[in-house]
Amino acid sequence: MIRNAIAGAVAVLGVLAGDATAQPATAPVGDGNTFIPMRRAEADAISAARGRVQRDGPTLSLQAEQRTVVFRDVDDRDAEGFITECERRPDHCPTFIFRQYDQSHHGFIVAVSYSEGRETIWIDDVTGAETEIGGEPHFSPNGTRFVVVEAWDCCNSFDGVRLWSAVGPRPEWEQAGSFKNNRAYFNFRRWLDNDRVELGTEIEIMPANSAAYSTQRFLTILSRMRGAWTIERQTDP
Questions:
Q1: DSSP conformation class of 142
Q2: What are the E-state strand segments in the chain?
Q3: Which helix (H) or strand (E) covers residue 47, if one does?
Q4: How far apart are the first and last CA of the chain?
Q5: How far apart are CA 117 and CA 189, in angstroms?
Q6: What percent helix, strand, coil does the chain show, rounded to 5?
Q7: pTM of the prediction?
Q8: Which of 26, 55, 159, 209 is most buried when burial is the number of CB atoms within 10 A of its CB?
Q9: What percentage of the chain has pLDDT greater than the value 90?
C-alpha cells in the first residue's frame, strides 16, 4: 500500500512544468541550526510540563506514570565546537531537546539531534513507551490524527509527509497517508479541515534546452476521500 501511495505522489509531482525535467531538489529546510532556537525554548517547555520534566545538565528526565524516562546528551566537541569522534560512535552523539507535553494526547515530545541527522520521539505519559514519529506533529482540528512534514535531505532522517492516528494509547502510522518524493520537498502550512492538509511544495527543474536549474514553489493538498488519501497540486502560493 505504501508503495502505491508513493508512486501516486511521484506521478502527480512529475508533471509539474510541461516538458521541463524535474530534478532532485536541495532541501530548503533542515540543518543543525534549527536546534538552536529549540534549545532556547526548552526551559519554557519544561516549565509548562508542571513538574513532569526536568533538566539537570546533560540529563533530561520525563516522569511517566509507570516509570521515569531518562535521556542523556553526548557532547563530543573540541574547544572550538567542532565534532570530533561522533562519526565513530555507534550513538552518533545524540542531543535531546524537550519540545512539549501534550497532556490531551498523553505524550511527551522530544527532538533528537545527532552528529548527522535528527529524529523526533513521542513518549507515552503513562507507560513511557517511545515511538519515533519523524518530526514535529501538527494535529487535525478534531485531534484524531496528526501530520509530520519534514524536508531533511541527509543521514537517514525522515523526509516527506507522514500521517499518524492519535486515537489509541500511542500513535499509529497511517501508511496510506504517507508520501515521499526525492524530486520535491514539502512544508506544513495548515489543516483546512479534518480531512485536508495544505502543504507548500518546492522542486528544482531544468527547462528543455537549458542547462540552468530553476525552482518552482506551489501548493499541494493532501486529502482523504472515501477513505483513500491523495496528494494533488493546487495553485502557486
A1: T
A2: 21-23, 53-56, 59-63, 68-72, 95-102, 107-113, 118-124, 130-132, 138-139, 145-150, 160-165, 172-179, 185-193, 196-206, 214-225, 228-233
A3: helix 35-48
A4: 31
A5: 23
A6: 15, 45, 40
A7: 0.76
A8: 159
A9: 46
